[in-house]
Specification:
By secondary structure, the protein is of the alpha+beta class. The protein contains two helices and seven strands. The protein has helices at residues 3-18, 109-120, and strands at 25-26, 30-35, 38-47, 51-56, 65-74, 77-92, 98-105. Strands 2-3-4-7-6-5 form a six-stranded antiparallel beta barrel. The longest helix is centred in the first third of the chain and has 16 residues, at 3-18. It is globular. It starts with a helix and ends with a helix.
Length: 121
């Protein structure tokens, strides 16, 4: 298989995995994470009411439960969100580490409200 064909397949897979329910908005902030008891840092890519995309240094196992802490800018103020999520997929990033999709679970009403405000701005 040629390198071009491999890249085309990777792009098609990434496109399929990137299709998601709900609106997402770019968000580029540092985040703290705990995955399988291990603390790590991440950089957010985007956020929506149902999910979050991040970039991390190492691959995360699919279906792993994790906790993410980030600051969301809403109405000129930073709001700290503590989110519970499940890893849906991960791909090697062309820029750095791995791009990981997270499905948010058990989102509090307050966090959902803040995310919705962020999306509407």
């Amino acid at each position: 298989m040629t390198e071009d064909k491999r890249e085309a397949i990777k792009a098609a897979i990434a496109d399929a995995l990137d299709r998601r329910r709900g609106i997402r908005k770019p968000l580029n902030v540092r985040a703290g994470m705990v995955v399988a008891g291990k603390q790590m840092t991440a950089r957010t890519i985007d956020i929506g009411v149902r999910g979050l995309a991040i970039e991390v240094d190492e691959a995360l196992p699919a279906k792993a439960e994790c906790y993410v802490v980030l600051t969301l800018p809403v109405d000129g103020h930073g709001h700290m969100l503590r989110l519970q999520a499940t890893v849906t997929h991960g791909l090697r990033s062309s820029t750095h580490g791995f791009r990981v999709g997270l499905e948010l679970i058990n989102v509090s009403a307050e966090n959902a409200r803040l995310i919705e405000q962020f999306l509407a701005a």
